[in-house]
Structures are given as C-alpha cells and as structure tokens.
C-alpha cells in the first residue's frame, strides 16, 4: 500500500523526549574528521593498541572454548558475581573498602549506568546539578529523561563548593526538585581538572546538609600521572553517593563493561531497570573482563597507559605553551585525556571549526558540553589517541587557525578571561563564571566524546 | 556522617516510573528453581551447548588477536556496518528483500531495541496494543515507559484481526493515544502460536486503514519445525512496520546482539536514543557475530537447533497428551520454545507454584504475561533447555501436582475453557476471551523469560 511519502510520516507521534534529540552538526563533520590527513584532537578514544592484543585474544578464545556454554548464555541482570567481586577490589584502590558485590550492578559501559540512575530518579522537569562544562554523554542522558540541567561552575580545583551551595539555595527558592548532583571529580571530561582533597569533604558535607544525592562518575580515577588515586567521594559517604565506574579507559571500551555501586535499595531498582532495558549485560564481555583481572597484569597495564598519556599530555601542553597566541588559556590536567581551552578575544570555537578542519585539525567545540548554549569560546582538546608528533602538528595547525581568526577579527578588541587558570603567555585574571540552564543536545562528532 | 538508617532513605525521590517496578515473587523462587533436582520448564534459555564451542572460541580469539584494536575500541552508535549488511542477508530469509544496512540499528539484544522504540514513541499514558498474553520483557519495557497496555486476544492462528480492529475503535472512542501494536507473529512467547498467512495481510491492512504503527518482534522466526520461514509483516509494509531481530535464539544470547530495522527517520531517532543509553553496542560481540555469519555454517546450525527443539517439543506434547488430567488444555507450537497451558477447573497457577516447586518442577505462572492480572489459570512451559527425558519427568511431576490440586478442589465444579485449541483429553469448546488493562510488572524468575 504505497502512500505519498512525506518527509517523516511519523513526525506527529514521537514522544516528547524525542523532539529534544538533535543530530549534532559536529557528527556531520565526522567523515571529514576521520580522514587520515586530519589530526583529530576531538575523539576520546583510548589507546587500546597499547594492550597486549595477542594475550587478550588467546585469553578470550580460551574462555569460550573452556566455558562456552556460560559465556554464550544469558546471565543475571545484575551481572556476573565473580566480576562484581573483582570490581570491589578495583574500587578499593580509591579508598572504597566497604563495598559489597551485592551493591554492584554491571552495566553496558558506565553510560548505561548513568542512564539507569537517571531513569530511576528523574521525572520530566526535575533538576540535575552538573559541572559547567559537563560530559556530553551525561547531558544526552539528562535530556532524554527530560530533566533540566543547572550548571555549577568549576575552577582549577574542580567544582566550587560555594557555588554548589548557592545553586542548591536558588533551586530551593525556585521550588525546583533537585534529584542529584552529577560530578566527575577526577580528570574531568572536558575540564581536565580534579576536585581537590578539601573540596571533596566540603561537597560531602554539603550533600549531607542539603540531603543531596551525589552521582560520582569516575572513569578516569586510576589514570593520574603524578600521584596515587584520590579518595573517592563514595569512600566518604556510602549512603548519599552513587558511584559509576568503567573499564573503558583502564582496559577496553569495546567490551562496554561498566558498573554502578549503590545502596541496596537503589541497587534493587537499578536491576529492575536494567532488566527492562537490556535483560542482562553481555556474558562474554563480563567474563573477559573478570578473566583479564584474574590473569593479566592489569595494574602494570594501567601504569603503561598513564605513561603513554602523560607523554601525550606533555606534548600537548608544551606545544600549547610554545605556540598559542596571547589571550588563549587552558587547563593543565595531571591525569585523564583532556585539556579545556579558552580562545582569546571572544572567538567562537564552533564558527571556527570548519576552518580548523580545512587546516586539518579537529577539536570539539565547547558548546557541546553545556546544556544552555554556553561554551562558545571554549574547546576540548583530547590527547589520548594521537601520537605526540601528531599532537604537536595538530596544535601547530590549531594555533595558526586561531591566529588567522584573530587577524580577521582584529577590529574587535574584547579582552576576556575565564575561571580556569590561564597558562597562555599573557598574565591572566580570574573571574568566576556561573553557567546555568536547560537542555540542548549538541554532541561531539561520534559517541566517543 | 552516619544517620539513623531508614528502610530506604531515598524512597521519596524516585521517578514515577520507578514506583511501578516490582520485584517478582517468582524471582524469589529462582534459587530454588535452579537446584539440580528441579526440572525447570520455566526459563527461556536457548540450548547453547549445541554450538561448536571450540570453533566459536578460536574464531573469537583470532578476531581479537587479528584485529584487536577494533574489537576492543568504541564503535559507532548505529553498529558495525559489516554486521548490518549481514543482518540484511538474514532478514531476506523472511522475505525482507528491500532492507538497507542504513536502516538497521544494532542493539544490546532485541530487548534494547524494544526499549529504544518505546522510548522514542511513548509518553506516559500512551497506549500500546499487545497480544494477550504477551512477552514479559515487553511488558517490563512498557511499564518503564509508563505506557498503558491494552491486550488483544489471540487464538491458534495468532492475533485476531477483528479483535485488533475492535480495540482500535474502542481506543479511538476513549480518546486514547495508541502509539503502536506490539506483536510477536512467530512461535509466540508465551503463546506458542503463529500468525497465519491470511491474518498477516489482514493486520497490515488494518494498520494501513487505521494509520497504526506495528512493532514486529521476531526472535524465533527461523526456528520453525516443519516449514520455511513465513513472510514477515515488514516484508509487506516497509513504512508502517518496525522490525526487531535477535541472534539470541539462532546463535547466542550471551553476546547480546539484536537489531531494529526501521524507516530512516525513525532509525535516526533510534541512533540518538541508543547513543544516550549505551554510547554504542559492544564491538567485540558485534564482530563475533559478523565473523560467525561469515565463516561458520550458521544455516546448518539453525537446522540443528530446530531439530533439537522439535524433539523437545515432541517430548512435551506427547507427555502432556498422555498425562494431563481432563480439562487441561494447551497450544501445539510448530516452532520456537513455548507451550501455553490452561489449567482445568479454574485452578490458579500462581497459588499452585510452591507445590510444584516442592514436587521439583517449575513453570512460569500466566499472570506474568498480562499487564492486567489476567492469566491466573495459565502457565508457560518452556521446552528449549531441558533434555527430552527431563521434560517427560517434569510433565509427569506437573500432572501429579495438578491432579492433587484437583482433588483438593474437588468440591468446586467449575468448567472453563479458553480461546486456544484444547488438545487435552476432554472435548473442548471455544470461547474468545478479551483481556484488557493497565500495567503490572510481574516477572519471571530471571530475566531470561
Ligand atoms: C566522564 C565520562 N563518563 C562516562 C563515560 C562513558 O564511558 P563508558 O565507555 O564506560 O560508557 C565517559 C566516556 O568518555 C566519560 O568521559
Ligand atoms: C518475544 C521476545 N522478544 C524479545 C526477546 C529478547 O531477546 P534478546 O535476547 O534479543 O534481548 C525475547 C527473549 O526471550 C522474546 O521471547
């Protein structure tokens, strides 16, 4: 029964949440960005080639031949018990010593963990507090839940406790239902900053005073360059903090194994929610991670990863120091994958992007990391994937693009600084910027943001 | 900051949808059911031990050693292009010859596919039409979306078109927003029946006349015992049918690889929704399925599976014929995993369950398959997992339990028949039963329902 085709004959029957989902203009650039001549400082893909692929391959092969029936069969919604035990061992490295495997739910990456937590807690219109900027994938989850995001500013020491308290008071005054604070305390994506030790306690104290639930999203916690892992927020408050973990950055993102650690009552809801969503996480990938933790030198592998990322971080910062035009500022991460850069003179990173791609360098424009359209002057640079030489070449190209933009805009004379430590050539000033607002869904060029 | 612990200190802040999620009393029986002395006719676990585990193991091992960087890295939200091509080949077996890989989204099992479709279309309060009984996992999805389920009756030829039209008219009269019909046309879970050829056309015609979207959930279509696969609804209407497929029953459920085939505009929404939910499906499992389809005799393996299931179906039906007390009726599946049984004299399958478990046999009570508490006299028997001898023993035990119940209830004299062909010893009568209503979330003993 062919009909006259309309553009989308079903356009009138989508759910409300679906109308908020927008295809990113950045994703449209993806095919360009993945051309070999382009240095991509855009993606957040871990350097999996540094894994011992042969060892991992034969380990997984033996797994299937040896215990195939289990690796290929349905499993429990909560996830493999043996893996949940090993996950508790991993969390102990960040001071979480009281976690029980029964409080852990294995998820399809920590992305699914965040989606489950959000589904369990958020009705449309509820408010979520989140750093500004914030992880783009989290903004997508909140938008799909029709939650409103209120950004809380950060500085070089991470989320600012006073700003959090201020936000809570304002929400209270507005009658907003704040469901939780979503925070990435370690090597923030995209901010590159880490929550300081005193602030950790301050935030837990605020959570207690305001009866605030905290979602601690921590995929990068073990990827510090200079120090032991910091003590998790969850290690300080087991009742008020729901912790999200992931093997994506410490082992492999392609296995999609993450987890949630939550108080038992919440864990029970999460299991029901995940059963309705995916029945159970893949068995094969869960067994692969458990076996990897059991038989491979995973701590040494993490060390190897961090050495590699440190080198790339160094290449990034050295090049930025050497090449960026005056007025450009950026953060100095001591772990993780990302530098957050602020353009000089009010330049707009999104408008600049096509020219950058023409010059064969790619980044993610800052607006993708805000729910309210802020971030135009910012960009995220990822140093996790390209080799140091590529990084240096990429930063060189980027510096040239920015310089050309400055020339173009030389009639303008705006001087502007941000809240992050300015490490560019000019002497910076510090101004806290508060950035607040409802959902948009600008996304990076691919889901690996 | 320890507080006086309450039962669930967060009880007041869950989302509305979360309050509808209930832990199943059946899941509580799980540990009992999985005791070796219990014959479980409850679970829907495929017979994965019939797979060539060594071959699959070395295939997957080589995959990782050979192309590890890709198998362990993030992939695209829509799924691996090569796999999507092979998925189109698989669907061609059911007459879907016009599908393009660009219309396919790979999902974490077809469960996630259904969740995504439901999220994209359903606002709270929207109505979903579904067979009565219906797949328990689908009811969980609809409940999580706060959609209302209106059951449409089936008989031995599947969904009854006149009843569908009736339901649509009633919904129209009520002002209900019907978002779609969810249907399992082949070897229905739990009904065991298959939609007849003429009814397929009738349902597509109704969909066209009423501008109805149809979600065709088809995990069992290639598992017919006696005939070639039937032509999919999607093969008859590419615009109005969204098709869900799965490798869980034809290859392995533990890999969690399913898919959605949808018109491009819908597909685009589904990709945005899955990116917000899991970023991307696991790469390793997608490559494993693609490689399996490329290098292993998968059609022969499906034949082997169906022979094995046919034997088990035979054992089930022969035992039922021989042993069930008068008044008991059941369906006669010619494919798939399930028999839908109706107890005599108004017996209640859920009340009877503890006694069945005591007698070392397990089934899923019928109420789990209705959103409105119907189904008390029914139960689902799965023959997919136990060996024929176990099945015979299980049915023997079940027959004894039913007989004992009948003795117990012998004061009652109710005679009752259902809409399914009665194949028990007594002469049946046919009465169509219409079963309608809103959500409950009674679930089977584990997610593998
Ligand atoms: C802060 C943050 N949270 C969560 C994720 C998602 O990771 P996963 O691969 O575990 O879903 C990422 C990935 O980049 C991330 O940066
Ligand atoms: C009718 C039906 N749909 C969907 C599913 C879910 O299958 P998958 O493993 O692909 O998520 C099942 C599993 O039993 C089923 O019976």
UniProtKB/TrEMBL annotation, chains A, B:
Name under which the protein is recorded: DNA-binding transcriptional regulator, MocR family, contains an aminotransferase domain
Region described as Disordered: spans on this chain: 429-449
Listed GO MF terms: DNA binding; pyridoxal phosphate binding; transaminase activity
One of the GO BP terms on file: alpha-amino acid metabolic process
Originating species: Geodermatophilus dictyosporus
Domain Aminotransferase class I/classII large: 66-398
Cofactor(s) demanded: pyridoxal 5'-phosphate
Gene3D superfamilies given in the database record: Aspartate Aminotransferase, domain 1, Type I PLP-dependent aspartate aminotransferase-like (Major domain)
UniProt record similarity statement: Belongs to the class-I pyridoxal-phosphate-dependent aminotransferase family.
Coiled-coil regions listed: none
Domain of life assignment: Bacteria
Lineage: Bacteria, Bacillati, Actinomycetota, Actinomycetes, Geodermatophilales
């Amino acid at each position: 029964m062919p009909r006259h085709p309309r553009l989308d004959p079903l356009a009138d029957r989508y759910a409300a949440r679906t109308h908020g989902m927008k295809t990113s203009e950045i994703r449209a650039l993806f095919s360009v960005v993945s051309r070999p001549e382009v240095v991509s400082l855009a993606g957040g893909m871990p350097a999996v080639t540094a894994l011992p692929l042969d060892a991992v391959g034969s380990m997984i092969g033996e797994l299937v031949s040896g215990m195939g029936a289990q690796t290929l069969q349905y499993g429990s919604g909560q996830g493999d018990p043996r893996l949940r035990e090993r996950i508790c061992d991993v969390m102990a490295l960040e001071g979480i010593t009281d976690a029980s495997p029964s409080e852990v739910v294995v998820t399809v990456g920590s992305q699914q963990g965040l989606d489950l937590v959000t589904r369990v807690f958020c009705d449309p219109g509820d408010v979520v507090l989140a750093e500004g900027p914030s992880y783009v994938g989290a903004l997508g989850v909140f938008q799909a839940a029709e939650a409103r995001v209120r950004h809380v500013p950060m500085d070089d020491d991470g989320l600012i406790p006073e700003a959090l308290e201020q936000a809570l008071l304002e929400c209270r005054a507005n009658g907003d239902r704040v469901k939780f604070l979503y925070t990435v305390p370690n090597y923030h994506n995209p901010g590159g900053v880490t929550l300081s030790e005193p602030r950790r306690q301050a935030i837990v104290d605020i959570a207690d005073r305001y009866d605030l639930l905290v979602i601690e999203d921590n995929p990068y916690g073990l990827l510090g360059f200079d120090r032991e892992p910091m003590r998790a927020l969850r290690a300080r408050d087991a009742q008020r903090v729901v912790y999200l973990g992931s093997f994506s950055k410490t082992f492999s993102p392609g296995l999609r194994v993450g987890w949630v650690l939550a108080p038992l009552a919440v864990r029970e809801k999460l299991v029901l929610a995940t059963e309705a969503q995916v029945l159970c996480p893949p068995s094969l990938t869960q067994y692969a991670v458990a076996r990897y933790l059991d038989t491979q030198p995973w701590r040494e592998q993490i060390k190897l990863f961090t050495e590699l990322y440190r080198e790339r971080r160094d290449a990034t910062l050295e090049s930025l120091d050497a090449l960026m035009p005056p007025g450009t500022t950026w953060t100095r991460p001591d772990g993780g994958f990302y530098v957050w850069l602020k353009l000089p003179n009010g330049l707009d990173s999104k408008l600049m992007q096509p020219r950058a791609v023409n010059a064969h360098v790619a980044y993610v424009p800052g607006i993708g990391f805000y729910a309210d359209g802020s971030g135009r002057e910012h960009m995220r640079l990822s140093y996790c994937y390209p080799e140091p030489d590529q990084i240096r070449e990429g930063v060189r190209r980027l510096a040239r693009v920015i310089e050309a933009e400055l020339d173009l805009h030389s009639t303008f004379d705006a001087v502007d600084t941000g809240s992050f430590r300015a490490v560019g050539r000019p002497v910076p000033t510090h101004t806290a910027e508060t950035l607040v607002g409802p959902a948009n869904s600008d996304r990076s060029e691919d889901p690996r943001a």
